Amino acid sequence: MKKLLAVLMLAVACLLGTSLTFAGDRYGKQKVVYHINYGDKQQQEAALRNIQNHINAVGAENLDLVVVMHGAGVSLLMTAKDDMNLQGKVLGLKEQHVQFQVCNNTLTGKNLDYHKDLFDVADADIVPSGVAEIARLEQMGYVYIKP
Prior knowledge:
Layout: H1 2-16, H2 23-27, E1 30-36, H3 41-58, E2 63-69, H4 75-80, H5 84-95, E3 99-103, H6 104-109, H7 114-117, E4 126-127, H8 130-139, E5 143-145
Parallel strand pairs: 1-2, 1-5, 2-3, 3-4
């Protein structure tokens, strides 16, 4: 019976021109925290591409993905304030349920007002400490990725 089912699935896949590997089947549900604490714009944009590639592979419905920014990493949202291309990338990820969290210690230390100085940041996006938030998320079962 299993062989018959496998043959039928292969036949349907061939007719539809699709593969038998489905992202949800391969990866399942994932909880991931991406850590951005560097100020290089190219590296930051590469991180955003990594995040989009991750979503493409696993499916937004299978991901609980958080980006935590602190230190120089906050410059990503400072740059996005005046960069329409970067705004589009950030908003595109947010539309796929990616959460962007910003370290309050960094805001205080750099004397930044997130309402004026950062792109699309709400009160709920501010966490007391970026590094403490990453540790908290890891304790909750999130996998740590630093692109």
